[in-house]
Each structure stands twice: as C-alpha cells, then as structure tokens.
C-alpha cells in the first residue's frame, strides 16, 4: 500500500508533529485501523490519544496469560475510564497447562521460540487476520530496542501494514506529564514472559 519513499516523506514531514496530528494523518491515509496494547507502562497514553480521534477504534489486547495482578487491575481501569472497544486474544493453551508441560523457558532454551509463538505471536497473527487492518497504531518509542531506534514514526510491518507510533520521540518524562495532564493511570509492575531483558525485541515488531 505504501512505498519506502512515501514512508520516508511521512517521517520527515511529521518528525516534529504532535501525536494528535500524526494520528489524524494516519486516519486520513486509511481509516481501517486498530490499536494494539498489552497494558504495559505508558500504554494509557496511546489508547487515550487514538480514542480521542476515533472513539470506537478496535483495541487489540493480546494477553499472554502471565500478566501481574497489577497489570490486570490497571487494564480494567483504563478500559472502563476510556470506554475502549477491546478485542481480547489469548493463547490457545492456558498458562496453567503450559506450566506443567513447558514452564517459562529461558531465552536461550530450545523451547523459547515455541513458547513465544504460543503466548504472543499466534494470538497476534489471529487478531490481525480477523481485523485485517491497513493502519496499526502502537506505542513503540525510540530508545527501547536497537530495532525500534531504526524505524521512525511511520513504518511498514512485515505484512505491509502501516505502523504508526505517535509518541515515537517522547521520553518517559514527557509521557509522565501527558498522563498527569489527562488524568491517566500508569502501572510499572508488568511482566513479559518472552523477554529476559527490557531492551530485547518481543517478536511482534522486528
């Protein structure tokens, strides 16, 4: 749908734009959009910003089944406060079942790829196949991983979907202010079972 040169042009034009302007532009390009979330820290910002422009946008939540009690409480609060149109996707096998047959493998264990496929990649692929979006809003930011440092506000997913990261250049401090000004909650007790390190790519984006 988009060429690399169009993506480059968009990134140049919107480098200094406000998140609301970036979101508006994305909807102008194509309004068949979803926003994905896992309710990790600072996710309330992207959910708030996108739902201000399009209140009923499908919110795809891929829940690994290993979230902390704090994350689940946080998710419930954000969903209620923002009246989000949530579509929940979970692995086909429960975490209790997987704990018996595999557990949570370390990143260098042979089972790690299968574990990541089961808890994260398969539910995500299922979500994208059902919604078939042309635009995918996400809260990727520069500085999170080496891959994310290379993509810009606008990028293309492996399947050619226009990926839009409106807060791409924002720091934690700037996002703290955004959350405060908009009376949005945050929660830091978050656990991703597929990542040993915070700066490791999770598999959905690279």
TrEMBL record:
GO molecular function: phosphoadenylyl-sulfate reductase (thioredoxin) activity
Originating species: Algibacter luteus
Source organism superkingdom: Bacteria
Pfam families given in the database record: PAPS_reduct
Gene Ontology biological process terms in this record: sulfate assimilation, phosphoadenylyl sulfate reduction by phosphoadenylyl-sulfate reductase (thioredoxin)
GO terms for cellular component: cytoplasm
Record's protein name: Phosphoadenylylsulfate reductase (Thioredoxin)
Gene3D superfamilies the record matches: HUPs
Chain segments annotated as coiled-coil in the UniProt record: none
Pathway: Sulfur metabolism; hydrogen sulfide biosynthesis; sulfite from sulfate
Phosphoadenosine phosphosulphate reductase domain ranges (all copies): 34-185
Family note: Belongs to the PAPS reductase family. CysH subfamily.
